[in-house]
Amino acid sequence: MRLEGKVGLITGAASGIGAATARFFADEGMAGVIVADINDELGEKTVAEINAGGGKAIYIHLDVSDPDQWQAAVKESVSKFGGLDVTMNNAGMSVPASRKKVEDTTLEIWNAMHAVNATGVFLGMKYSIPEMRKRGGGSIINTSSIFGIVGSGSGTAYHSAKGAVRTLTKAAAIQYAPEKIRVNSIHPGFADTGMTQELHAMPGERERRIGLIPLGRMGVPEDMAWGAVYLASDESSFVTGLELVIDGGTIIQ
Ligand SMILES: NC(=O)c1ccc[n+]([C@@H]2O[C@H](COP(=O)([O-])OP(=O)(O)OC[C@H]3O[C@@H](n4cnc5c(N)ncnc54)[C@H](O)[C@@H]3O)[C@@H](O)[C@H]2O)c1
């Protein structure tokens, strides 16, 4: 019961890392888990599973790039559970059209990638902070990536947006530390999730990636979800502005 009594909202929680985190948050005793996503069917399924296991979860449709939807989601969360202690800005996207070099990246895909992967995080913090202030503190967890720290041969806009999340997290951590609102980032390495399903099905690609991981296996959503539990809990009450890299050692080389 590491999260007993807390209320937490997770974006991109219909699938992958977000769904695993929502399950762990409920298992650790959260008084309310808000599963937010644009995939309503999968989101409702995640909520049904959590509630069948004795958790207290609701689903809210939330496109993280839309400020009006953010305001409505925070309002609904607070009216349902009485406050907000944890926000995990986890929704993200990477599509074949975004896995391009600089010259081959269209402005359209550049803007779309930043709208979800970077602006979505900014809006999530902007609208959660006032509610956390009312509770006397809180924990914001922003999902970046190892690709927010190091470069690679493609994924131009993804690198840029995830890199923005990395330093935006530290700026917010400094700004809100006096109010005991902690802001940290998680940097997943390669993992099997909805986002990587198509990529990892390409001949040899999954094996190539495993070859880059010193611990010798592909990541699973639960690897990141344990990190989120730590950052959401009071066990990390002296931790802010941290980059928690969970990648099997990929970028220490
Ligand atoms: N899987 C990996 O290898 C990996 C590596 C590094 C970072 N990440 C990051 O982890 C996070 C979670 O991704 P995942 O790997 O679990 O993938 P996933 O596709 O399984 O989950 C992402 C979820 O985000 C949702 N989403 C997409 N756009 C949204 C929007 N505009 N508003 C709300 N929800 C939206 C999707 O519907 C989906 O449910 C992402 O930020 C991703 O960039 C993943």
What can you tell me about this protein's structure?
The structure is a single chain. It contains 8 helices and 7 strands. It is of the alpha/beta class and 253 residues long. The chain has a single domain, classed as NAD(P)-binding Rossmann-like Domain (Rossmann fold, 3-Layer(aba) Sandwich). The protein has a 7-stranded parallel β-sheet, with helices on both faces. Strand 4 (86-89), helix 4 and strand 5 form a beta-alpha-beta unit. Helix 4 (107-135) runs parallel beside helix 5. It is globular. 46% of the residues are buried. The structure holds nicotinamide-adenine-dinucleotide. Nicotinamide-adenine-dinucleotide binds next to helix 1.
The SSE string, one letter per element, is EHEHEHEHEHEHHHE
Which fold name is given in CATH as the topology?
Rossmann fold
Strand order of the largest sheet: 3-2-1-4-5-6-7
* Principal-axes shape call: globular
Calculate the terminal CA-CA distance, rounded to whole Å.
Answer: 36 Å
Measured as a percent range, the helix fraction is 40-55%
Number of domains: 1
Highest-level CATH class: Alpha Beta
Tell me how many strands there are: 7
Looking at how many chains there are and whether they match, the oligomeric state comes to: single chain
Structural class: alpha/beta
Furnish the topology, listing elements before pairings:
Layout: E1 7-11, H1 16-27, E2 32-37, H2 40-52, E3 57-61, H3 67-81, E4 86-89, H4 107-135, E5 138-143, H5 156-176, E6 181-188, H6 197-200, H7 205-210, H8 221-232, E7 243-246
Parallel strand pairs: 1-2, 1-4, 2-3, 4-5, 5-6, 6-7
Helix pairs in contact: 1-2, 1-8, 3-4, 4-5
Bound molecules: nicotinamide-adenine-dinucleotide.
